[in-house]
Design goal:
Layout lengths: L11 E5 L13 H13 L4 E4 L11 H17 L7 E4 L5 H14 L3 E4 L11 H14 L4 E5 L11 H7 L5 E6 L4 H11 L12 E4 L5 H6 L4 E3 L7 H12 L3 H19 L3 H12 L14 H20 L1
Parallel strand pairs: 1-2, 1-8, 2-3, 3-4, 4-5, 5-6, 6-7, 7-8
Length: 318
Amino acid sequence: MATKSRTPLRSGIYAPTLTFFHPTTEDLDLSTIAKHSVRLARAGLVGLVTLGSNGEAVHLSRSEKAAVTRTTRQALDEAGYTDVPVICGAAEQSVRGTLELCREGAEAGAEYGLLVPPSYYRAAMDESRLEEYYIAVADESPVPILLYNYPSAVAGIDMDSDFIIRVAKHRNIVGAKFTCGNTGKLTRVASAADACTPKKNGSGFMAFGGMADFTVQTWVSGGSGIVSGGANVMPKIVVKVWTLLTEGKIEEAMNLQEFVSRGDWLLGKPGVPATKAVLQKFFGYGGYARRPLRRVSDVEVENLAEKMKEVMSIENGL
């Protein structure tokens, strides 16, 4: 039987998907994971990321991680979204462990891996150690990898543009996600790597903004798209901003960005538990994060829902 060719990454909006659990047992809720994945693809997202911070990867066993990615891939395929690639978070603290996750992710249906730098031994992680880590993984990984710059999640490690440009020359490193929010850094990397944009394929390197909060800014900076946690709740409006920009309707996109930024902040500040609670409120599913993350009170949910009402009205009208 012929092997499926790797689905190329496209310019557009991606989401780091949530992982859903049974409300009392905390077992994986695979049916909701599948349903959510299809909902996001139907809304116009061009790729999904499993096992990121929004996906509570640190709360999952190795077998659960594989099950989440496998369920996501199967659900997309069965719904006809075979052209929507799955990127899996695959970072461990060692080269060996990361390669194991890359292999297991590939076996589960992921076509790319997203890697934060190792940070447990923070004092030892200078640029030379980080470069050795990424190059060693890229040399042997069965899937192309993307760098993930998220300083607050990795003890403050903040890869600068010189480092990313240098490491990105590796044939198996195909992109970077900038959750640092530094659009100047994104601009420098996108330019040096000849990143894919809505107007050109370039080298194929993907320079992703890490939050919907700066969708317009990423587009202006020559970025390839957004990997947006907020798109779990409001995918259509984030897609709409990117589409308007691509169509040259800049003022209209900037006006809509104001609503996106407010919504993204409301979801991002309280984190995964609140994102799930808002999803439950507006769409009837979401549930809770695994302990020790908190359960959001009914009062807080109602308060968030009230503040989200305007952006969700736009979302539901698209």
